[in-house]
Amino acid sequence: MGIVERKERQKESLRQEILDASRDILLARGYAQLSMRGIAKRIEYSPTTIYLYFKNKDEILYHLCVEALERQFEVIRGAGGDEPSPLLRLRAALRAYIDFGLSEPDRYQITYMADISRYVSMASILEQGSFANKLREFMGHRVNDVLIESGCARDVESVFQVLWAHCHGIVSLLIGRPDFPWVERDKLIETSLDISLNGLVRQRTA
Amino acid sequence: MGIVERKERQKESLRQEILDASRDILLARGYAQLSMRGIAKRIEYSPTTIYLYFKNKDEILYHLCVEALERQFEVIRGAGGDEPSPLLRLRAALRAYIDFGLSEPDRYQITYMADISRYVSMASILEQGSFANKLREFMGHRVNDVLIESGCARDVESVFQVLWAHCHGIVSLLIGRPDFPWVERDKLIETSLDISLNGLVRQRTA
Amino acid sequence: MGIVERKERQKESLRQEILDASRDILLARGYAQLSMRGIAKRIEYSPTTIYLYFKNKDEILYHLCVEALERQFEVIRGAGGDEPSPLLRLRAALRAYIDFGLSEPDRYQITYMADISRYVSMASILEQGSFANKLREFMGHRVNDVLIESGCARDVESVFQVLWAHCHGIVSLLIGRPDFPWVERDKLIETSLDISLNGLVRQRTA
Amino acid sequence: MGIVERKERQKESLRQEILDASRDILLARGYAQLSMRGIAKRIEYSPTTIYLYFKNKDEILYHLCVEALERQFEVIRGAGGDEPSPLLRLRAALRAYIDFGLSEPDRYQITYMADISRYVSMASILEQGSFANKLREFMGHRVNDVLIESGCARDVESVFQVLWAHCHGIVSLLIGRPDFPWVERDKLIETSLDISLNGLVRQRTA
DNA sequence: TATGAATGAGCATTCATTCAT
DNA sequence: TATGAATGAATGCTCATTCAT
Asked: Are B167 and A169 a contacting pair, CB within 8 Å?
């Protein structure tokens, strides 16, 4: 009823607050500085309270990762569906991947932070299907469409992995090296996509 | 003289031992596990002694970064000088970059570990000129040669940054996600270089 | 009526469940590991519920002690009533004391655990009369009968206390030092009783 | 030299202070209340300092046990050597055992505290030889001498174990139940020794 | 140059208990 | 009767760092 519902909402809300605070701290100060005490102070509850919502610190990290991957997929899946050509649909997806990384750098980085992967097995997250069975499959389709249309002989998996790596390179450097004198951000991204996709479809003849 | 010299050598040597031990621990166990105590135990000196060579932990990290970047430049500069064409010389340099990252993942990662950049400002390292004024300049030349030869209208800096990002993407994913079902490593790298360089020189007509 | 009765039965039953769970944990894992949480999990109720039946942890311990002493008396009182001589009746009672300790080591130990006596004053238990006024009186009678019959000049109280201590020594060492290379258990017990009772009735002439 | 010596003495002294404080707390308040922080407060050093002298809490307990057993053996070994008969020499040793327990109840109890034995394996202590290879052997000799002299047919091991248990019973009850209305302490002890030794040598004829 | 002693701050986690419902 | 939410206090332990020598 009303009461139960409200309570559940409250409970869920505090749970989310904990995750939010944890993500903030994690990205702002790194894994080493992510402490239960710190989280507690941020949400203005006692450290003990956190244990009512998460079994331990690792469980918080795990949920942070899952959440980030799910959000990523959600954003990318929705991109470019109405573009007129396979190439443009692929480009839109890649651009969405990059934009997601840049607009939600906290969530993006979480899944790539070396330290985290030491504590939260990526394997256990991939098993959840978030990434492997969803994003990968989705991107695979778009890549495949392009290869077919352009008559390009490359294999889907290689191309997918290369494109992913290129985009990841762009995102991670922009995020990770904010001090570097980058050229204008949008120009950098578009140049990257130009080069990658152009290089993909125009197979070298030599 | 002899004595002073020996002392200097010893001093330099212990200093280097500290850096070596630190790098080992850092890469093997992560920033969170890099402790002064741990370093001390490894080099078989007291923790206090480390403070005679480095002001604090951050200074060790700083030198680790500088050292890694210098080593990187050394390796890349030597690559592909005898290749017959600008494009092949650029390709050789990029391949050297990737190979360096994969063959010395510890040194490579150090400069890209999110955690480290929180403690050691990249800016302070770039100011030293190691990277910006050397590798960047060097790669800039090779990129420029290719652009001129191919009559491509792109600007050097954008292209350099994009190529760097693409290579970094490849290296960092291969290193950071060893569990991922990658296609055969060499094929992945060559495909990436193919796509990037092919996309670079064959400007889109449309 | 029926409802009240059932409720009472339930109440009594949960109360007993709490005591049972507590005893189990206490003996299996020690005082340090006896936690309200632990008890709650065992009985599958919330920790809070325990407070409806016991004021606090100490009260649980207190009841555990009382219960153990009552059970002990019950067992010993029933022993050896049909033996033909005072000496054999006393021996049977002592043997029952030892057997009780060994067959219900959990209950036995509870009343002798150093840690517990720090939390539950023995005095408060003895005042209840359980032990002092029952077991002590009972054993006093049996001892007295032996002293009279054998014409031994010792005073009852001293002898009772000595015999009690001897038996306690046997039980507590067998329980507390299970790793020790004891001689065969029954032989040890009988030898102890032999020595104690033999030494009791055969007064030294010198 | 002087300095090194003084430093060593200081170091040893703080180490001993830690053990003393730990023993005090352990006996006064029990294992559950023995905390590193508590020890630190008592010796007026920071908790961290304790870790410079002992690896962890268990190591403190271990040393407490070893120390107690060594002290016990030292005291008992010195007892009754000049008594004129085997029986009196045995009696003196048993009396020394009891007296040790009563005059240094803290040290005595440590080795018999149930909780401790859960944390510090008795086996590891016995291997040290303190008890098994020293006290046991020593008492075995004295018991043997009595058996030979009195022509008693019992086996040494059984008798040793029974006498040990009887003495332990006396000590542990006197220590553990200070509230109990014991008869005069010395009378109790002598009565116990009378009974045990009298019962030992005067074999039952029946 | 090198170190042993010492410490304050911090960590994750557990516990007994209270309170409102 | 029963509980979920919450907490303050406590625990063992590790760390970077300082200081006197």
From this structure: yes
- pLDDT (average), residues C118-138: 66
Q: Tell me the pLDDT of chain B averaged across its residues.
A: 85
Name residues whose C-beta falls within 8 Å of residue B18's C-beta, 6 or more positions apart in sequence: B39, B43, B50, B53, B54, B60
Going along chain C from its start, the domains and CATH numbers come out as 1-55 (1.10.10.60), 58-202 (1.10.357.10)
Cβ atoms D192, D166 nearer than 8 A = yes
Nearest to D194 among C166, C168, C199 (CB): C199
- The predicted pLDDT at position C171 comes to 95
Q: How far apart are CA C149 and CA D203, in angstroms?
A: 20
The string of pLDDT tens digits covering residues B2-52 is: 555 655 666 678 999 999 999 988 878 777 788 999 999 999 999 999 999
Residue A94 has pLDDT above 50, yes or no: yes
The residue behind tokens 């890649």 is A94
Within 8 A by CB and 6+ apart from C87, the residues are C146, C149, C150, C197, C201
| C-alpha distances out from residue C103 to B165, C75, C93, C95, Å | 75, 11, 15, 12
How many Cβ atoms are within 10 Å of D119's Cβ, its own excluded? 15
Neighbours of B121 (CB within 10 A): 14
- On whether the pTM is more than 0.85, the answer is no
| Mean pLDDT in residue range B139-158 | 93
Residues 6-35 of chain D: which lie with beta carbon within 7 Å of strand E?
7, 10-11, 14
B34-48 residues labelled b (16+ CB within 10 A) or e (exposed): bebebbbeebebeee
A117 CA: distance to closest CA in chain B (Å): 9
Cα angle C23-C26-C27, degrees, rounded to a multiple of 5: 85
